[in-house]
Design brief:
By secondary structure, the chain is of the alpha+beta class. It is 36% helix and 30% strand. It contains four helices and eight strands, in the order H-E-E-E-E-E-E-H-E-E-H-H. A four-stranded antiparallel sheet has the order 1-8-3-6. Strands 2-7-4-5 form a four-stranded antiparallel sheet, with no helix packed on it. A hairpin with a 2-residue loop joins strand 4 and strand 5. The N and C termini lie far apart (43 Å). The structure holds adenosine-3',5'-cyclic-monophosphate. The site of adenosine-3',5'-cyclic-monophosphate has 17 residues, from strand 5, helix 2 and helix 4.
């Protein structure tokens, strides 16, 4: 499962095995709030199946689906969650703790580069929304 996610592509077998040992699979029903805007959080999610809606101040920012990830911002910045993410369908997500994600990024900088590129896009998007 890990191997299929673009975020983890190109990782060695040994690294994938260590990553699998550090992660868990969370299955949720539609309507489940996975992360909540303004609340601190230390779990990072990669969507395996299903879709979720990202909202901020009750406005929809984005829909996320398989292979997308979320929760990286609070995990990397240690600031509260920037948005709320709610399951729209039944979902299966791979979860990693902050420590697990940091270890994975340290072992394989390509994970960090992919994460940072998405993080930068999302931060730019949040900035634009607040430009008046
Ligand atoms: P975090 O702030 O930890 O929790 C909410 C998550 O929503 C955030 O991390 C990102 O993963 C995600 N998110 C925030 N803004 C956007 C956006 N513009 N597009 C997609 N996802 C976003």
């Amino acid at each position: 499962m890990l191997e299929r996610a673009p975020l983890f592509q190109g990782l060695s077998r040994a690294h994938l095995r260590r990553l699998a040992a550090a992660s868990a699979v969370r299955r949720v029903r539609p309507g489940t709030e996975l992360v909540k805007e303004g609340v601190p959080g230390s779990v990072f999610y990669v969507i395996l199946t299903g879709t979720a809606k990202v909202t901020r101040n009750s406005r929809t920012l984005k829909r996320l689906g398989p292979d997308d990830f979320f929760g990286e911002m609070a995990v990397l910045t240690k600031e509260p969650r920037t948005a709320t993410v709610v399951a729209e369908t039944p979902m299966e997500c791979l979860t990693l703790t902050a420590a697990g994600l940091r270890t994975a990024m340290g072992r394989d900088p390509s994970i960090a580069v992919r994460l940072l590129s998405t993080l930068a896009d999302r931060l730019a998007g949040l900035d634009r929304r607040f430009d008046v």
